[in-house]
Design a protein that fits this description.
Order of helices and strands: HEHHHEEEHEE
Number of strands: 6
Shape: elongated
Strand content: 5-15%
Mean pLDDT: 83
Low-confidence stretches: 149-165
Distance between the termini: 55 Å
Amino acid sequence: MLTNRRSGISASKNAVKYYQKLRKKHKKITNIREDFLQKTTTLLAKTYQHILVEDLNIKGMMANHKIGSALSSLGLYRFRELLSYKQESCGFLLTIVDRWFPSSKTCSVCGNIQDMPLKERVYHCQNCGQVMDRDLNASKNLEGWTNADGLSVNACGQEGAVSLG
């Protein structure tokens, strides 16, 4: 790793010590992230009987150079994976909402769908005049989401009980 075999140069002791310290710091950060994910998903799984998770296009979002590195370190897939098996082990329902459902573009009061750029953080409905935080509006829309048949679908892809929305 630190040596150059072609020219016969071996790594210095200081370089070896530096990379050992760096490896420990990276491992500590990894452990902190994993601990956070484990504790948070356990709390959510034990607290809520029905959780809705939006299936986001993470690959497409990571192409954005402004938020890509922040998204990659969040571990969103790991979060969903942990939440899925913990909800199942508790006997509760985890619903994956379709990624094309316009949760933040739909008015939670009248159902009007309008274009909304990401930089706008407040939802202003052009139809009924409702003004609400974008994320709050999206969460209210997700709460009432059901698939085309009116049934919720759990994380394993099996149809479950009628949605609680």
